[in-house]
Amino acid sequence: MQSIKEIYKIGAGPSSSHTLACERACKLFIKEHGKLNRYYIELYGSLSLTGKGHWTDTIIKETLSFAKVDVEFKLDWNESFPNGFYIYGYDEFDNEVAKWTVFSIGGGSIDIKEIKLNYNDQIYFEKNFNEIKERLTKENITLLDYALIHEPDLREYISDILDAMTACVKNGITTEGVLPGKLNIIRCAKSLYTQSEEIESSSDKKELRIFSYAYAANEENACRRQVVTAPTLGACGVMASVISYCYYDMKVSKEKLIDALIIGGIFGNIIKRNASISGAMGGCQAEIGSACAMAASALAYINDLNLNQIEYAAECSIEHNLGLTCDPVGGYVIIPCIERNAMGARRAFEAVTLAKYMSKVKENLISFDMVVQTMDYTGKKMAIELRETSLGGLAREYPIED
């Protein structure tokens, strides 16, 4: 498995696969070949089908703004991974200097056919959670120890991630306006937060506060502001909401939250290796389902649950997101994405409560590894129309005129 740093990345929205990944690839192309005179980019797969609503062509042109840039949306893609693009660079004489084949593999992570990327190196050699548990037992170490042995500097990196998460939520609950695009959706986080301050019911207050934090992060994401992949930008509100509630409302220490994010990152890493965190590959179960599992495992750690209970919470979170489709209306990361993040955050709390008390009643028969394998199988069986193409589902029921 790769570094946990590849699970958590700070970047501008609205989509890690469509904006962050493309920005990273273009910046690497510049670093490798210098600033060239002209660029030509061909987008394929989900990058093509929902690229307009996800601002893919815009971020590419902004990143390469010093040169002439042409971006085309294509359909016939014959590469091994379904989501990607070609980037061609030309000198002042219009000679082709280089061509890259870039795969957007989810969460802002990329792979490039023509070169090797160091941050795709395998840092963890255990392949699944069962193998990790065996190592924990053999070496008498904790799950947190396991991560820090492999990445001793991880806490410092995650500290910046925590700051970015809580900052995007704080910005989101204090901002009003209309989200960009043709849907004309107003920002709701501030109103939800204000309502949560006015109601007396403690349970309603908690739920509404959690919802407002998720809306805050995802509305910032939709406005192309700085948010954190956890594991994607489209699902950024789940972990941001849970962590922000623990920070702002439960007053959990920053040190505890950093460690909790590391725990969540381990589970996200396992999903990324054995299934997918890409909506184009596995539908929204790969994004919200993964985010919910990461948030639930982090929250379980915060609540001092044991290893089996943490696994139970993560497993439960994915199990009840299996088959969740990715069908963004108009290609925007707004409907149903933002509301879905709010529900995912609430589900993380429910999964932790269930894990805490059900573990006293019976042993959970379904392991985390089992549900990840099921998630992978389900994603592969899902129709292409329901995997971030905006060709089916809600996107078909509510079409947007060009």
Describe the structure.
With 402 residues, the chain is of the alpha+beta class. It has helices at residues 16-33, 46-49, 56-63, 129-139, 143-150, 154-172, 189-198, 202-222, 236-249, 254-274, 279-282, 288-302, 307-319, 337-358, 368-381, 394-397; strands at 10-12, 38-44, 68-73, 84-90, 96-106, 109-112, 226-228. The chain starts with 9 loop residues before the first strand and ends in a 5-residue tail after the last helix. The mean pLDDT is 96.
Number-wise, the strands total 7
Kindly estimate the percentage of residues that lie in beta strands according to DSSP. 5-15%
SSE sequence, one letter per element: EHEHHEEEEHHHHHEHHHHHHHH
Alpha-beta content class? alpha+beta
Largest pleated sheet: 5 strands, mixed
Helix content: 40-55%
Q: Which spans of ≥5 residues are poorly predicted at pLDDT below 50? A: none
Q: Tell me, what's the shape?
A: globular
What is the count of helical runs? 16
Quaternary assembly = single chain
Radius of gyration: 21 Å
Mean pLDDT: 96
* Strand line-up across the major sheet: 3-2-4-5-6
